Amino acid sequence: MIAISAMSASVQAVFYLIAVVLFVLAGLAVSVRKMNLIGFGLACFVFVFMWNAFAAAG
After folding, report:
1. Do the Cβ atoms of 45 and 19 come closer than 8 Å?
2. Coil, helix or strand at residue 34
3. Phi, psi of 42 (to 5 degrees)
4. What does the angle CA 48 – CA 17 – CA 54 come to, to the nearest 5 degrees?
5. Helices 37-57 and 9-27 sit at what angle, rounded to 10 degrees?
6. Is the CA virtual torsion 29, 35, 36, 39 positive or negative?
7. What is the rounded (10 degree) CA torsion for 17, 24, 26, 15?
8. pTM of the complete model
9. What residues contact 5, with CB distance under 8 A and at least 6 apart?
10. Which of 33, 24, 29, 3 is nearest to 45 (CA)?
């Protein structure tokens, strides 16, 4: 089993804030070395759910 604990609320808020900033930058058509900011924003958003699901399963 994976020995991790649930993510704290402040860390979750940081990940959600990063995701929102990336979504806004992608919406404004800002390009950072031609990286897909929507994909990075979605990854930051989903990471919280994945982490907490692994913590609940372990």
Report:
1. yes
2. coil
3. -65, -40
4. 5
5. 160
6. negative
7. 10
8. 0.84
9. 55
10. 24
Tokens 């808020």 map to which residue?
13
DSSP reduced 3-state for 9: helix
CA-to-CA dists, residue 28 to 16, 20, 21, 39, angstroms? 18, 12, 11, 15
pLDDT for the residue 43: 96
Say what the pLDDT of residue 7 is.
93
| 3-state secondary structure at position 10 | helix
Residue corresponding to tokens 């900011």: 37
User: pLDDT digits over 1-58, tens only?
Assistant: 667 899 999 999 999 999 999 999 888 887 777 778 899 999 999 999 999 999 998 7
What does the block give as tokens for 38?
A: 């929507």
